[in-house]
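Researcher: Structure prediction, please.
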Amino acid sequence: MERRVVITGMGAVTPLGNTVESYWENLKNGVCGIDHITRFDPTDFKVKIAGEVKNFEPELYMEKKELKRNDLYTIYAIAASVQAFADSGINMEQEDAGRVGVMIGSGIGGLITLQDNITRLAQKGPNRVAPLFIPMAISNMAAGVVAIRLGAKGNCQNIVTACSSATHSIGDAFRNIKHGYLDVCVAGGAEASVCEIGIAGFANLTALSTNPDPKDACKPFDRDRDGFILGEGSGILVLEELEHAKARGAQIYAELAGFGATCDAYHMTSPDPEGTGAAAAIRAAMAEAGITAEQVGYINAHGTSTHANDSGETKAIKAALGEAAYRTPVSSTKSMTGHLLGAAGAIEAVACVKALQEGFLPPTINLKHPDEDCDLDYVANTGRPAEIEYVLSNSLGFGGHNGVLCFKKWR
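Model: Predicted structure follows.
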């Protein structure tokens, strides 16, 4: 028997705020969280702006000794997970720990740790590499450490599918609960790649915008877009089987009703220009949710602000929804947060749940000169109220990985 899955807790650490409330309030108001890089001196770099997390206080979530034992991406994951689990009100003493899972994806993992220790090896020799270098660097450790912190002994995974990692993690958690393997799962993503090698690598790939103005550089669907802006942080959802949530009197934010996953099988970094794979993922998510195109009230687009993504994703939406695409609001919250890579789908899932809960669509900011190839309703520059029943969240990653989540309003 297939079971229904609901969202009962959320946590967020983002360039727009370090709680769900502050993040969502800034999204609604069209605030841009992108600014000049402060973590290192970017003078010699082609790109000098990013979506950094600001005013973050990790001591609220862990002891100082833990900070030295974890990469920043794991620290972000711990913070967002602690928020989400506390928000859910779950008491592990009353749970079967083997039925509580953790699935936290990361596209790159401990990149700062990798950079620092490879530099240390080159400059000071092998004996100066940190003893905890390996566990701090590997990308599964956020999931592992969160499971230790919460005492969750069920299925614990780290899914790595580049920019789709968090969406696939949430989707896999959904399926584990739906098909009876888990009752609860802490799911999402974490990333901390705003460092010298991260910026240089993406810049030399010509993936990043070279616009020097941080408040104007990220402009999804605009004809003048020239690349994405690197962001960082973590988003976490607590997914729970419906009857389990009801039995303990949990607050329910939304239902997760469908998940679609496909591959373009086209190119290492470029999406299929016709959006064929992404369209198939959208259709699959809608099919599992049992809805038609006309029932989709909003789409949180992958919307990276690259030419290839935005035009291809627009084609994908039109292919999947048909004429209904022109009546469906679409927005890219990356215009405000930058691109959190493996964590992007998680903070965007939080935005989708809040959009359903409050009946409000966050905008795509900086959309001043619409691209003729991008001809949908992108909620340009200013958010708007809207009564919606279903929303889709798209994630499209390097390697052709496509993931789409379908959330339903809880009544």
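Model: The mean pLDDT is 98.
Researcher: Thanks, that helps.
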